[in-house]
């Protein structure tokens, strides 16, 4: 039985952080695709401000 091409690439494992490559804690909003740990390091350079 042959697996369809689109079924081969599904799920959380295919989306990875652009910086470190992990697939855990990924921020996908605004098409960032950066994990939350890397986001804390680069947020200021992306013009995000901390509130609270």
From TrEMBL:
One GO MF term: zinc ion binding
An annotated GO BP: cytoplasmic translation
The keyword Ribonucleoprotein appears for this protein: yes
Entry GO terms, CC: cytosolic small ribosomal subunit
Pfam families (alphabetical): Ribosomal_S14
Cross-referenced InterPro entries: Ribosomal_uS14, RIbosomal_uS14_euk_arc, Ribosomal_uS14_sf
Gene3D superfamilies xrefs: 30s Ribosomal Protein S14, Chain N
Keywords noted in UniProt: Ribonucleoprotein, Ribosomal protein
Protein name, per record: 30S ribosomal protein S14p
Lineage: Archaea, Candidatus Micrarchaeota, Candidatus Mancarchaeum
């Amino acid at each position: 039985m042959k697996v369809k091409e689109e079924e081969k690439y599904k799920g959380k494992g295919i989306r990875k952080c652009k910086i470190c490559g992990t697939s855990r804690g990924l921020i996908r909003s605004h098409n960032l695709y950066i994990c939350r740990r890397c986001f804390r390091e680069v947020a200021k350079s992306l013009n995000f401000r901390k509130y609270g």
